[in-house]
């Protein structure tokens, strides 16, 4: 099925797998024609207004097709693109799983996540944090080698592809 109808905030809503949303009339006023909901962006997310309440489109798509969100979970965009609200790009994950892919590199000595310069040994250190601990992966002669080591460990941990460093060689 390409769409599902749900009740949300006293309104009938048709949610499509592609992320489009059609808002129907309030339950008390059946004469109003359904309309394609106008979307706008807030912090990179598509938002629709339903009866004066702003709703994120990815949450509506997940609610319609994946069911209610389990306690402690969030909707995750698999490809990291907040505007891509297609069903195949959405999944429920824990908060830490959702944040894992979106760590921005800190302002520091390296252009890569998890890579820092060791002034004492004059080498690049690769490290990764998980389970609330920081693990050093080794010292490397080049910044790119250190970034590759961090990527390898992230893949072994099953982290999403958007958490990997984009190595520019």
Secondary structure elements and their pairing?
Blueprint: E1 3-8, E2 11-16, E3 21-26, E4 35-36, E5 39-42, E6 45-50, E7 53-56, H1 57-66, E8 73-77, E9 90-94, H2 95-100, E10 115-118, E11 123-130, E12 133-140, H3 143-156
Antiparallel strand pairs: 1-2, 2-3, 3-4, 5-6, 6-7, 8-9, 10-11, 11-12
Question: Can you tell me about this structure?
Answer:
The protein has about 170 residues and is α+β, with helices and mostly antiparallel strands. It folds into 2 domains: about 5-95, Homing Intron 3 (I-Ppo) Encoded Endonuclease, Chain A, CATH 3.90.75; about 105-165, GCC-box Binding Domain. About 20% of the residues lie in helices and about 40% in strands. It is built from 3 helices and 12 strands. The chain has helices at about 55-65, 95-100, 145-155, and strands at about 5-10, 10-15, 20-25, 35, 40, 45-50, 55, 75, 90-95, 115-120, 125-130, 135-140. The protein is elongated and about 70 Å long. The N and C termini lie far apart (about 45 Å).
């Amino acid at each position: 099925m390409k769409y599902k109808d749900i009740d949300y905030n006293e309104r009938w809503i048709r949610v499509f797998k592609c992320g489009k949303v059609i808002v129907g009339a309030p339950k008390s006023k059946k004469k109003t024609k359904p309309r394609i909901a106008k979307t706008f962006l807030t912090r990179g997310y598509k938002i629709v207004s339903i009866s004066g309440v702003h709703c994120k489109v990815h949450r509506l798509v997940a609610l319609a097709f994946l069911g209610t969100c389990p306690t402690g979970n969030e909707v995750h965009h698999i490809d990291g693109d907040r505007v891509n609200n297609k069903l195949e790009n959405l999944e429920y994950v824990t908060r830490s799983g959702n944040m894992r892919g979106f760590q921005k590199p800190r302002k520091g000595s390296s252009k890569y996540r998890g890579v820092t310069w060791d002034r004492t040994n004059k080498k690049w250190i690769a490290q990764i944090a998980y389970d609330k601990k920081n693990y050093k992966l080794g010292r490397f002669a080049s910044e790119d080698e250190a970034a590759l080591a961090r990527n390898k460990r992230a893949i072994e941990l099953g982290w999403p592809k958007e958490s990997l460093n984009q190595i520019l060689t």
